[in-house]
Amino acid sequence: MSLDINAIRNDFPALQRLIKGKPPVYFDNACMTLRPQTVIDAMTHYYREHPSCHRRSIHKFGKETTAAYDKAKKTVRAYINAKDADEIVFTKNATAGINIVAHGLNFQPGDVLLTTTLEHNSNFLPWQFVAKKAGANLAAVPLTPELTFDLDAYRKALTDEVKVVAVPHKSHITGYTYPVKEIIQLAHARGAVVLIDAAQSAAQDDIDVQELDADFLVFSFHKMLGPSGTGCLYGKKSYLDNLTPVFIGGETVDDVSHNAYALTKVPERFEAGLQDYAGAMGVTAAVEYLQRVGRPAVRAHIGKLNALVTQGISELPKVRILGPAAAAQRGGIVNFQIDGMDAGELSIILDETDNIMTRSGVHCCHAGYKRHNLSPSLRVSFYMYNTEQEAELFVDRLKKIVRFF
Amino acid sequence: MIGDTGCCGFSGIQKGPNLFGLLTLSVPMLVVCLAVYPLMFVLGAFNPAAARRRDQVRIIIRANFNLIHQKTFFPLFRCKMAGTVFRFSPRLSGLLYRSFNLAAFLLIWLCVLLPVLAWIK
Question: Is some CB atom of chain A closer than 8 A to the CB atom of B94?
Answer without folding.
Answer: yes
